[in-house]
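cache lookup: miss for this entity combination. No prior model stored, computing from scratch. Input as submitted by user K.M.:
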Amino acid sequence: MKIEVQNVTKRIKDATVLDRICLTMESGTVYGLRGKNGSGKTMLMRAICGLILPTEGTITIDGERMGQEISFPRSVGALIETPSFLPGYTGLRNLQILASIQRRVGKEEIEDSIRRVGLDPADKRKYKKYSLGMKQRLGIAAAIMEKPDLVVLDEPINALDEKGVELVRDILREEKERGASSSPAMIKKNWNCFRMRYL
Amino acid sequence: MYSNDKSKRNFFCLLKHDAAIGILRPILKWLPVILIFAASGGYLLAMVEASAESGTVSSKATLGDMLAYVFQGKTPYNPEDKESFSIPFGYLLPNLYLAYLIGNYPVKDLLGTGQQILLRTQTRARWWLSKCAWCAGTVLAFYLVGYAVMLVLTAAGGELSLRLTPELGNLHGMYTEDPSSMAWLPSAFVLPIATSLALSMLQLGLMMLIKPVGAYIAVAVIVSASAYFYTPLLIGNYSMLLRSVHFMPGGLGFWLPLMADIAITLISAAAGLLAFRRYDILDKA
């Protein structure tokens, strides 16, 4: 997979939130975005996911232009800002609902991804009863459960304890290894093992 | 590439999600619908009963009487008349509450789980079509609940017939030359639903351009203005039986309002789709 961001500018009302961004990302690498508050890290992630469209410039994924040939990356798992799920359902049920759309994974894989983030798939508590850290972990599980070609994680270690931070680091390494051919992941934290991009 | 089967399955999952989360899950939101229709229909039954006790009426209200009463709307208001404008609560309340139901679910959905769903459905068009179907489903469910309430009320305290009772004309205000004629029924059954669908789709489309609260206000203004002004340009007029040709000489017919409703529905859906293709999904509505 190759993501090319070419001269992307995004203006929202009078504010320029992205200003002529150019970058190229390829499979098998974990990329980190670093910058001041409000420098546009989240906006760039949203743009790469297809959630916002550039005012100027282009984003192409494997040669297909976002907003024209494709609306969203063909295989993407994302956690952007705060995770959001249906409050009245358990974590497992929430992920099952999401997985039912593409049916790429079954119950076992969903349960595996919940275990990978340190949660218990048999937990009967509803999402609204989850702590912030648990919500964050479930958000990460949702992003990786379908083994997407592109993983976009925005502030993945928010609300996580030390063990959780280590867990995310391990998950990213595993994702990188799994996707040696196709798994760029984006995060927003300065971890030495990743390629950094300053905005 | 997505195969056709996968696309269909994908869309079906979206529909299921919207039906479950947008219609069935917020079950308490349907309670006021029952109350609104029960209050309106119950008021007619109470009036008929009071009139029967005083001996001015000898028959029971029929289902037809109730339909006519609930969807009567308001006779055209003439500002030059000495009478002041009376607010038609029976017409405004259901319409404003339906607009509340349409409210902000699509946008709220986009800011929550809907965002994850959207990424998995792969196209904005499919997501939008599913929301249009949800909108139609909500309108239909709204009227089905209303009809069910009227049916129960009439079964309990009236007569299960669709005929209008002439001697109740002074109670429900519906005078027709031929009470045995059923020609008014399509206007009572179809036009309120078609008009509500048009208004709801307009609201849905506007949500893609302005904030949900702005879209709600726009619909509320159209509905309120329709009560005040009698003109085919304000579509709220179409759902008022008292302004139809069956109950008012020179009133609105059936086909033209229906065509206008369908046109507004389709144009709103198409315009909403175009707007949604360029819609930025941010963390705030």
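stored under new cache key. DSSP finds eleven helices and no strands in chain B.
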